[in-house]
Amino acid sequence: MPPPRAPRQAVSRGVRGAGPTEESRAYAALVPSNASRISRSWEWSAQDVGAGARSRSRQATRQSLSYELMVKQYQADGRAAVVDFRALVGPLPADEQTHGIYPYPARLLRHIPRFLLGCEQLAVADDMVLDPFCGSGTVLLEAIGWGHRATGLDTNPLAVLVSRVKIQPLQAHHAQQAAAELVKRARELRAPAPPATFLRKWYTPSAYGVLEHLTAALPELHVDPRVRDQLQLSVALLADSASNRDLRVPVPVRSKLPSRHAELDNAEYFAAFLRHVDRVSRAGARLPEVLADRAQVRLADVRQAVQLVTPPGTAGLIITSPPYGSAQKYVRSCSLGLGWLGETEDSGTALLERASIGREHLRASETAAWPVRRNWPTTVTSTLAKVYERSGPRAALYAHYFADMADAFVGAVPALRVGGRFVLIAGANTVAGKQVATHALLAEMLASRGDLRLELVVSNRIRSRQLLTKRGRSAPPIADEYIYVFEKRH
Ligand SMILES: C[S@@+](CC[C@H](N)C(=O)[O-])C[C@H]1O[C@@H](n2cnc3c(N)ncnc32)[C@H](O)[C@@H]1O
C-alpha cells in the first residue's frame, strides 16, 4: 500500500537549515580550543565527582562559550555550520579509559559527546544523561567522566554487556585471577552442552572446542558480577578473533585469506582468551574508582521501557545516535559473540534483529501493510512516496523505520525535564539509489511534537564510523552526520 501523497509544505526554518555542508563554514577556526586541556579537564572532573561543583573546569567554561557562539550564529543565519569536533577537542589516545574495549559498529565519535557534555548549557554536574540507543556506551562513559549520572538502553545484549564493562571500574587482578580459574575448569570439563549450531562452520575443531568448554564452565564460576561481565566480554572477543571470519569486514563473512588458525592448538586459544581478559581488565582498571555506579545500562526497547528506567522529567539531557534505517547491521556484526553467550536461536540472530529498529528485512505481512501515522510531517510522507516510486519494498522498510522512530521519541522525550536538551546525532541514507536526509526527517518529527524548540544544528564529517555499508554501487557510505539540539519547552 503506498503512503498518501503529501502536499508540498515548507519545513521549519531550523531543520531546513541543516543543508549541504558546502554552504557551511568551517567552525573550528572560530572556536578557541586547546586539545590537551580539554582531555585533562575531563579526567579532573572524573576524579572530582564526589566533590561536586569543583568539577567545572576552566575548559568547560571555554566550551560553553564556544557553544554559545555556535547557537548565536545558527540562530542568526539558520545554517548548519561544519564543526570539526576532532580539531575542537584535539587528539585523544586510542586506549583512553575503557573506550577501546570492543569494536562495536558505528560507534559515536567520542569527541562529540566530550564537547557537548562539557557545555553548561546542556548539562550541569550530577545531571542525569539518557542515551536510549546507547550501543557500546560511548555517551555513558563520557557523561560520567564529566561528573554526570547516566542511563543507557539497548536491545542488543552484546551492546549492553560492552556498555556495562565500559562504565565499571575494577582492579585488573580480579578478572585475571578468575580467568585463570576458568581456564583450569574448562580444560577439565567433559562433553559440555553444544552451543547454537550456526556457530560450528566458523571455527577449526580446536577453536570451537575451547569456546565450547569456556562457555560451559563460565556459569559455574562464582564471581563478582563485574568480573563475570569482563570474562563474558573476553569470550565474545575470542569468538571473533578465533573464527574464520574476515576481520576486515564488519559482518561475519568467511575469510578468503589462508586460515590463520589451521596450525593453532587448544593451549594457544586459551592463551588468546587470557590476553583478551588482560586487555579488558587493564582498561577497566584505568577508570577511577569514584566513577563506580554512576551509570546504569538496561537491555530494553526504547519504545516500551524508558519510563521504567528514567521516570518522566528526570533526565537533564538526552544524547543519542539512533540506528540508521536498514544500513547498519548491529546484531549481525556481533552474531558470533552473541551466539557463544547464549543470546541467539540455534539458527542465528533473526529474533534479535526483529526486535531492533532499522531492520534490514521485513516479513511479507509487514511489507504489505505499512504503518502510516497521521501526525507525521509531510516531508516524511512525501519522501516515502518518492521512494515507493522506485521500490515498494524499500519504501515499506522505511515506513516501518519512521514508525519505530516515532514510537521511540514518544518513549524517550517524556524522560526529559522542562529546560533539558535533546541532542540527536544522525546522517543521510541512500535508499533505492537516492539520498534521503534521514537526519532532517527525524528532526522534523521531533520538531513537530510541539514541546521541543530547535536551538542548534551543526554537522560533522564522518571519518571513523564503522559498518557503514555499501549497497551495490548505488549507496555511498554516509559522509556527514548532523547534530541537532532541541530544548524541551513544556
Ligand atoms: C548508532 S548505534 C549507537 C552507537 C553508540 N552511540 C556507540 O557509540 O556505541 C544504535 C543502537 O541502537 C540500538 N537499538 C536498535 N533498536 C533499538 C530499540 N528499539 N531500543 C533500544 N536500542 C535499540 C542498536 O542495537 C544499536 O546499538
Write down how many β-strands occur, each being a DSSP E stretch of 2 or more residues: 10
Q: How would you characterize the largest beta sheet? A: 8 strands, mixed
Order of helices and strands: HHHEHHEHEHHHHHEHEHHHHHHEEEHEE
Bound small-molecule species: S-adenosylmethionine
Strand percentage, roughly?
A: 5-15%
Low-confidence stretches: 1-41, 44-56, 464-475
The best one-word shape is: globular
Helix tally equals: 19
Biggest sheet: strand arrangement: 1-9-10-6-5-2-3-4
The average pLDDT score comes to 84
What's the number of domains? 2
Secondary structure layout:
Layout lengths: L12 H4 L18 H13 L10 H20 L3 E2 L2 H5 L21 H6 L11 E4 L6 H8 L3 E6 L2 H11 L4 H17 L16 H13 L7 H17 L24 H20 L9 E5 L2 H8 L5 E6 L9 H4 L1 H6 L9 H5 L9 H5 L9 H13 L1 H21 L3 E12 L1 E3 L2 E3 L1 H10 L4 E10 L18 E9 L2
Parallel strand pairs: 1-9, 2-3, 2-5, 3-4, 5-6
Antiparallel strand pairs: 6-10, 7-8, 9-10
Helix pairs in contact: 7-10, 8-9, 8-10, 8-11, 10-11, 12-18, 17-18
The structure holds S-adenosylmethionine.
The site of S-adenosylmethionine has 23 residues, from strand 3 and helix 12.
How would you sum up this structure, described in words?
With 490 residues, this protein is an alpha/beta fold. The protein folds into two domains: 294 residues, no CATH class; 114 residues, no CATH class. Helices cover 42% and strands 12% of the residues. The chain contains 19 helices and ten strands. The chain has an eight-stranded mixed beta sheet, with helices on both faces. It has a two-stranded antiparallel sheet with strand order 7-8. Strand 7 and strand 8 form a beta hairpin. Helix 10 packs across helix 11 and helix 12 packs parallel to helix 18. It is globular, with a radius of gyration of 23 Å. The N terminus is likely disordered. The protein binds S-adenosylmethionine.
